[in-house]
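Quick illustration, no need to memorize.
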Amino acid sequence: MDPTPLQQALTQAGAFAAIGFAAVGSGLGCGAAGCAAVGAWKKCYAQDRPAPFQLAVFAGAPLSQTIYGMILMFLILGKASTLGASWPVFLALGTIGGIAMGISAWMQGKAAAGSCDAFAETGQGFTNYLMALGIIETVAIFVMAFGIVMLAMIK
């Protein structure tokens, strides 16, 4: 059975929710980390110390969740072309998955903001800070992976 226009629209809304909510979180996270990086660089300049370039890594860390949301979006759209009756699953998966990835990005940005301040002040611990950000990143990876598994179960 071919999907109705409403089913197609709700499926597409779910697909876009996956990237949309993930991108909102990435924006919030990169904003928080970016502000902290700028402030940390300013402190370094004020003290005539070199400004560590590694802070750019912290500022950009939350961007990857948008990529995970995009992957989920494409997979939902690919699966949905033949399964119109599954639109509630696609809508829920995109919305809940996107929100979860977005929150992961937002919290990763907050942790990255703290990492910027700590690394600029001490010049130490870069790898440790990245590990903490990686743990937060894992939440988004799990959401994407489990979303892929759910999509694979739809027949």
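The helical segments are 5-46, 55-60, 64-80, 87-122, 126-153.
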